[in-house]
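Task: sequence design from structure.
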């Protein structure tokens, strides 16, 4: 018989970590809770906390075991959990909206037609819907600066590929399970390659190596291949022609 866990769930992870989990699957509200909770931990600046991060549905806290015990840390986190309804808490301030020029389909992103068919859409309609979708950086992971983005509309809850695509380039926009991933470097993938950008997520030569932060929002706006070629020829800053604006609190 399945065991139903109570959420939010506070527990230890490894030697010096604690995890606050808001759901066992990703959802908009669980991700909102994870981002808001992690932001509040950072704001409080607890002296025993050495690191924090947020994933799709959890917030991770690393702590100094010379300053506190596991039990004390768990109690402190549980007290914070109990202070509010994190699932309906506003997202952190300081977030940004990025609009990123994207070529959908063509030989640059050859799996667009297959992804559209899996979603029950004509390619042109899939491009229209994807281009109008405003998605959140749910978490950064797998590779430096690489965002998982979503949630996309339910028709894009399509499965991963059964076989890996041997390699997609940096700036590839891939799709599966109602999420995008924007690749920070060339890599194999089991997600559908539906779009191509010139946006560099990881810029180790700059003071802010990760271009995106959890909670930022992105729109991948359709452009022609000629437009993208022009952007690539003038892409010294790595933004790939993207614009960025602050999201009002």
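Answer:
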């Amino acid at each position: 018989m399945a065991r139903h866990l109570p959420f939010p769930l506070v527990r230890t992870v490894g030697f010096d970590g604690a995890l606050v989990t808001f759901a066992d699957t990703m959802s908009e509200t669980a991700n909102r809770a994870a981002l808001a909770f992690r932001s509040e931990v950072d704001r409080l600046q607890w002296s025993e906390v050495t690191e924090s991060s947020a994933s799709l549905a959890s917030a991770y806290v690393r702590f100094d075991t010379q300053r506190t015990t596991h039990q004390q840390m768990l109690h402190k986190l549980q007290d914070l959990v109990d202070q509010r309804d994190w699932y309906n808490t506003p997202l952190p301030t300081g977030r940004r909206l990025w609009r990123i020029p994207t070529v959908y389909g063509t030989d640059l992103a050859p799996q667009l037609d297959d992804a559209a068919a899996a979603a029950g859409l004509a390619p042109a309609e899939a491009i229209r819907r994807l281009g109008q979708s405003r998605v959140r950086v749910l978490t950064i992971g797998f590779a430096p600066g690489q965002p998982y983005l979503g949630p996309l509309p339910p028709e894009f809850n399509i499965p991963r590929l059964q076989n890996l695509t041997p390699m997609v380039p940096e700036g590839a926009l891939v799709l599966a399970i109602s999420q995008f991933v924007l690749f920070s470097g060339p890599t194999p993938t089991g997600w559908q390659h539906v779009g191509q950008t010139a946006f560099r997520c990881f810029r180790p030569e700059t003071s802010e190596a990760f271009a995106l932060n959890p909670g930022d929002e992105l729109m991948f706006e359709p452009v022609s291949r000629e437009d993208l070629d022009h952007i690539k020829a003038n892409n010294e800053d790595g933004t790939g022609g993207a614009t960025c604006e602050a999201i009002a609190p």
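The first helix runs from residue 28 to 44.
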